[in-house]
Each structure stands twice: as structure tokens, then as C-alpha cells.
Amino acid sequence: ICCISPLPPSCGSGPAMWMRQLLGSTATSQDLQEQGAAAEADAREEAEVHEALLAEVFEHEFRRGECREALARAEVQRDSLAVEAACLREDVARMRDEHSWASWYRTKEMAKHANLEEEVAAAERDLEERRVDSRTRHAASAIFEADRRRRQEAAAALLQ
Question: What angle do CA 18, 24, 28 make, to 5 degrees?
Fold first, then answer.
């Protein structure tokens, strides 16, 4: 029969049992060592998980920073492209104006050329008319001269 008292038991259960009863625990030192090892393993695992989470957070923040930098570069590039597009629009407008002016000038020059061709054609017609008139006058003069000679000859023949 064992008696429970604050003094060591007299029934031969030994000091370990008395200590366990005194401390209110039924765990042996081996159990405590196993629990300590398990707690250390849990603590190590928790530390590893914590470190892994910190690494993920750091990686996430690093990538966020990279994304912000990439976004900033993209915004600068977008602004640069917007300026370039505005310049190209101005160039296109200027080229359209130049093309319109060149087209107008070409039309004007073609009209001038057409007018010159008409003037040349009119001058050629006038020259041809003058040649015809000159030939006609020459022929008429020759006829008149021949007629005058015949009259003179006829008058000379009458006088003889």
C-alpha cells in the first residue's frame, strides 16, 4: 500500500515517483528530453518557416521595386513616344502643306506650259498665214508684173 504524503514514500516507489507527484507531473526525464527535443525541432522549423516567409517578403518587395522601376521607365518611354508622335504629326502636316503647295505650283506650271504651247501654236499659225500672204503677194506681184509686161509689149506693138 502506498501512501501519498509530502515525504518520500515508504512503500518503495522511489524518489522519481515522489518527485513526479510533488511536481504534479507524470512525465519521465526521457519524456521531458523528447518533449524538449520536439520543442527545439518545432522552434527550428518555425524559424525556418519564418526565414522563408521573410525571404518571400523580401523577394516580393524586391520585385515590387523592380516593377515600380519598370513602370517608371515605361512612363518615360511613353512620354518620349508621345513627343515623337507629336513631332511626326507636325512633319506629316508640313509635308501635306508642301505637297499641296507643290501640287498647286505644278498645276500653275502646267497651265503656263499649256498657255505657252497655245501661244507657240498661235505664233506658228500666224507665221504660216504670213508666209501664205507673202507667197500670195509674191504670186500676185509676179502676175501683176507679167500683166504689166504684156501691156507694155502690147502698147509697144501698137505703137509700131
Answer: 65
CA 6, CA 9: separation in Å to the nearest integer?
8
Residue 7 C-beta-side C-alpha neighbours within 13 Å: 3
Q: Which amino acid is at 113?
A: H
Cell numbers found for residue 142: 509676179
* Pair 35, 45: CB distance under 8 Å: no
Q: pTM of the entire structure?
A: 0.37
Q: Is the distance from CB of 11 to CB of 1 less than 8 angstroms?
A: yes
Question: What is the rounded distance in angstroms from the CA atom of residue 39 to the CA atom of residue 32?
Answer: 10
Residue range 132-156, pLDDT digits in tens: 888 888 888 888 889 899 988 888 8
**What does each C-alpha distance from 129 to 43, 107, 133, 142 come to in angstroms?**
124, 32, 6, 19
